[in-house]
Specification:
The protein has about 375 residues and is α/β, with parallel strands linked by helices. Helices cover about 40% and strands about 15% of the residues. The chain contains 14 helices and 13 strands. The protein has a 7-stranded parallel beta sheet with strand order 3-2-1-4-5-6-7, sandwiched between helices. The chain has a 6-stranded parallel beta sheet with strand order 10-9-8-11-12-13, with helices on both faces. Helix 2 crosses helix 3 and helix 6 packs across helix 12. It starts with 6 loop residues before the first strand and ends with a helix.
Length: about 375
C-alpha cells in the first residue's frame, strides 16, 4: 500500500461533533478517512459539513442519550455487544492504518472486533472530557478506572483537549506518546465574520448543549426585571423544554433552539455581548475543574467577553488573558457583580480580546502538528 495515503478510521460513540468534523476534514486532505459511529438523538447531525470528505460513513446503531435509568444502561451495553460483529465485517473492508476512538468503550469494541486481524494498526484514543468516574470513589468508579487502565495497555497514542487531563490523571498509568489538541477552531472552517450587532441592551449568550440547569436558572434570577440585560440561548439538550418554559415566563430570556455550528456560529457570536459559561457545582467533577471547552476559543475569535467559574483551569485562563471574569454563580450577588463589572468595563475586555495572538484561539498550526503526531511512524515505513 502507498503509505503516503493512509486509511484513518474514526470509531465514535456519537455522530461527529464540530471537533471531530474539523479533524475529519483536515486529515482527509492527504488520507482516506473512514467513519463508523453510533447515533444519538440529542446531538445535531452535521453530516452536510463532512460527508464529501469521508471515504465511507457507516452508522452502527442508535443508542440512548442518557444512562439515568438502569434499562438505558443495559440497552446501551447490549447495542455495543451486538455491534461488534457488524464492526468486524466493516473492518474487513479496509486495511486500517490508524484507528481513532473517543472513549474506552469504543477502544474496547475495536480491540475485540480486530482481535484476529494481522494488520498492525496504530491505536489512538482521544479524550475530550473526563467523566464523573474520574473523581468518584464509588465501587462503579473503581471498576471503571480499573477497566480504563486495562484498555489503555493497547493504546499507542493519546490525544487530550486539556493538558491538565494528562498531567493530573493519564500520566499516572499511560506511558505512551500524548498530544494536546485544544478545542480551537480551524480558520478555514469558520464562516466569515459578520458585523457586530449594535444592541440596545447587553446580550448575555448561552451557547451549546443545555446540560446545566442550575447554572442557567441562577442567571435568569440575576437578570429578570433588569432592563439592561437580555439572555439569548442557543442549543439543544435535556433541559431544552425547561429553558423554553423559562423563556415564556421571563420577558428578557429568549430561547432560539438548536443551531448548525458551521452555518450559524458567526451570526450567534455577532449578536451577543457576553458569553456565559460557568460549570455546575452540583456535579463536582474533575472535568469541570480541568477542561478547556471549544466555546473559550470561539469567544476569543469573535471577541466576546466571558463569564465562567472560579477555581477552574478555564477560569484561570480567562483571568490571565484579561478577557472576562470568574464568578461563583451560586452566590447571586457575586454573579450580579460580575455582570456589572463587564457591563461597566466592556470596552476594556474587548480591547484585550483584540490584541490576542491568533495562535491562542486558532488551531491551524496545531492540526499540522497533529497530523505529524498521528502519521510520522507510518510515513517512515
Amino acid at each position: 500500500m502507498n503509505k503516503n495515503k493512509l486509511n484513518i478510521l474514526f470509531l465514535l460513540s456519537h455522530q461527529p461533533n464540530p471537533r471531530f468534523v474539523k479533524q475529519i476534514k483536515f486529515l482527509s486532505q492527504k488520507n482516506n478517512v473512514i467513519l463508523i459511529y453510533f447515533y444519538r438523538n440529542i446531538m445535531n447531525d452535521l453530516l452536510e459539513d463532512y460527508k464529501y470528505d469521508v471515504k465511507q460513513i457507516f452508522i452502527l446503531d442508535i443508542i440512548p442519550d442518557s444512562l439515568s435509568s438502569i434499562s438505558n444502561y443495559f440497552n446501551r451495553i447490549w447495542k455495543y455487544l451486538t455491534s461488534i460483529i457488524t464492526l468486524n465485517k466493516k473492518l474487513n473492508e479496509y486495511q486500517i492504518d490508524i484507528c481513532i476512538t473517543n472513549n474506552i468503550d469504543m477502544q474496547l469494541m475495536y480491540n475485540i472486533s480486530s482481535i484476529f486481524r494481522s494488520k498492525q494498526t496504530t491505536k489512538v484514543i482521544q479524550i475530550s472530557d473526563l467523566l464523573s468516574y474520574h473523581q468518584s470513589t464509588s465501587l462503579n468508579a473503581k471498576i471503571f478506572l480499573f477497566l480504563e487502565k486495562i484498555v489503555f495497555r493497547s493504546v499507542d497514542k493519546l490525544i487530550v483537549t486539556s493538558e491538565k487531563f494528562f498531567t493530573e490523571h493519564y500520566k499516572i498509568f499511560f506511558k505512551g506518546a500524548f498530544f494536546v489538541l485544544e478545542n480551537k477552531p480551524l480558520k478555514s472552517l469558520l464562516p466569515e465574520k459578520v458585523p457586530k450587532n449594535k444592541n440596545s441592551k447587553r446580550i448575555i449568550g448561552i451557547v451549546g448543549l443545555l446540560l446545566q440547569l442550575d447554572v442557567y436558572e441562577r442567571l435568569f434570577e440575576a437578570v429578570k426585571n433588569d432592563s439592561r440585560y437580555e439572555v439569548h440561548i442557543y442549543g439543544m439538550g435535556k433541559y431544552a423544554e425547561k429553558i423554553t418554559a423559562y423563556a415564556r415566563q421571563i420577558e428578557n430570556v429568549k430561547y432560539f433552539g438548536p443551531y448548525k455550528f458551521f452555518n450559524d456560529v458567526s451570526k450567534i457570536y455577532s449578536s451577543i455581548d457576553i458569553l456565559y459559561m460557568p460549570y455546575s457545582k452540583i456535579n463536582k467533577s474533575m472535568n469541570n475543574r480541568l477542561a478547556l471547552p471549544n466555546k473559550l476559543y470561539e469567544a476569543m475569535y469573535y471577541k466576546v467577553p466571558i463569564i465562567t467559574s472560579k477555581n477552574t483551569y478555564l477560569g484561570s485562563r480567562v483571568i490571565d488573558l484579561s478577557i472576562g471574569l470568574q464568578t461563583n454563580y451560586q452566590n447571586l450577588e457575586d454573579l450580579k457583580c460580575s455582570l456589572e463589572m463587564i457591563f461597566n468595563n466592556y470596552n476594556k475586555y474587548v480591547k484585550n480580546l483584540n490584541v490576542l495572538d491568533t495562535n491562542l484561539f486558532l488551531a491551524d498550526k496545531d492540526y499540522k502538528k497533529l497530523e505529524t503526531f498521528l502519521t510520522r511512524d507510518l510515513r517512515m515505513l
